[in-house]
Amino acid sequence: MPNCTNCSAPLPQGSIVCAYCGSRNDVDLKGVHYYTTHETDTSRICPRCSIGMKTIDLRIDGRFLIERCEKCLGIFTDPGELEALLEAAVSNVFAIDRTRLGLLSETRLSAEHPISYLKCPVCSKIMNRINFGSRSGVVVDRCKDHGIWLDGGELRQLCEWMKAGGKLLDQERKEQIRKEEALQEEKRKQSLQHSGTGESYKSFDEYGSSLRAQDPDLFSIVSSAIRFFSRL
Ligand SMILES: [Zn+2]
Ligand SMILES: [Zn+2]
Ligand SMILES: [Zn+2]
Fold first, then answer.
1. Which domain holds residue 209?
2. Average pLDDT score over residue span 200-215
C-alpha cells in the first residue's frame, strides 16, 4: 500500500487523496521508475475538472508525452500508448498470480468519483467505459479515435495488474477463445460433410466407387458419359 507523501499515512487502494491530511498524492507517477522533465500547457481539457491539462514527458524510449491534469492527477494517453507505457513500466513477468488478480479485480477504484460518462478531452464526445484487461478492476474511459482517460490511481493499479501477470492472463484467455473458435469451425466443417449438401461435393472417384457397388449398370453409363463429355 502506498503512503501519503505529506504525512506518511497509508493510502487506501485506489485512493489518491489522503484521509488524514487531505493531500493529493500522485501515486501513478511515484514509485515507478519513470519521471517527468518538462510540463507545457495543452489545449486538452480535463474531463473531470474542466481545466486545461499539461503535457508531460515520461522519457520512456526517448520522448513519451502524455497529458495530465494537475488537480485530479488523471491522465490521457493516445491510442496504444497506455499499452506501451505498461510494457515499459513493468517487465519480466512470467507467472500469473491468480490470488493477487482476484484481489485487484475486487478493488473498487475511483470511489472518489461517482460513475459517470466523461467527455473526450480532444473531441468532447462521450467516451465509452471499458474494462481494461481481465481482472484488473479498472474501468477506463475510451474515445476510440483519441485515446484512454485514466483517473488518478488507475495507472498504478494497472501496473500492479501487469506485475501480477494480468497481461499473461489476457493472452491465455485470447488463446482459449481462439482454440474454442477453431474447434467450432472444425465441428461445422464435419457436420457439413456428413449432411446431404456435403455429398454433392464428393469427387466422382469417391462417388463412382460406391455407385459401382450399388448399381454396376448405371455406373458404366455414367462413366462412359463422363468419358464422352470430357473428349468434347
Ligand atoms: Zn497525508
Ligand atoms: Zn482534473
Ligand atoms: Zn475523442
1. 183-231
2. 71
**Nearest bound ligand to the CA of residue 3:** 1
- The model scores a pTM over 0.85: no
Ligand at shortest distance from the CA of 79: 3
If phi > 0 it is left, if psi is from -120 to 50 it is alpha, else beta; for residue 64 that is beta
With a CB cutoff of 8 Å and minimum separation 6, the contacts of 67 are: 42, 44, 53, 54, 55, 56, 75, 76, 121
List CB contacts of 110: < 8 A, sequence separation 6 or more: 14, 139, 151, 153, 154
Going from the Cα of 154 to the center of ligand 3, the distance in angstroms, rounded, reads 20
The domain boundary residue, chosen from 171, 192, 212: 171
- For residue 210, is it within any domain? yes
Neighbours of ion ligand 2 (CB under 5 A): 46, 48-49, 69, 71-72
How far is the centre of ligand 2, averaged over its atoms, from the C-alpha of 181 (Å)?
Answer: 43
Render pLDDT for 50-92 as a digit per residue (tens, 0 to 9): 999 998 888 777 788 889 998 999 999 999 999 998 988 888 8
- Indicate the number of domains in the chain: 2
Domain membership flag for residue 21: no
Rounded CA separation 6/195 (Å) = 73
| Least-confidence region, from 132-136, 142-146, 170-174 | 132-136
Residues 154 and 214 grouped into a single domain: no
CA of 212 to the centre of ligand 3 (A): 69
Dist. CA 50 → ligand 2 center (Å): 7
